[in-house]
Amino acid sequence: MSEHQHGTMSTYEHEKTYKGFIKLGKITIGICIAILVFLVIYAA
User: SS3 sequence, the chain?
Assistant: First the structure.
């Protein structure tokens, strides 16, 4: 493994990963809401 040097990490990679995480969270929440709406409509 290479040595870590403080202050050399790319913030671009951090932002890209964070945006991907937020996007995945939004998609997951949307799917959960869609499933709940489907169950409310067709579960009776």
Answer: CCCCCCCCCCHHHHHHHHHHHHHHHHHHHHHHHHHHHHHHHHCC
Tell me how many degrees the CA angle 26-18-16 measures, rounded to the nearest 5: 115
Q: Please compute, for residue 4, the number of CA atoms within 13 A of its CA located in the half-sphere on the CB side.
A: 4
Cβ count within 10 A of residue 32: 10
pTM as predicted: 0.70
Task: Give tens-digit pLDDT for 1-44.
Answer: 567 778 777 789 889 999 999 999 999 999 999 999 999 999 86
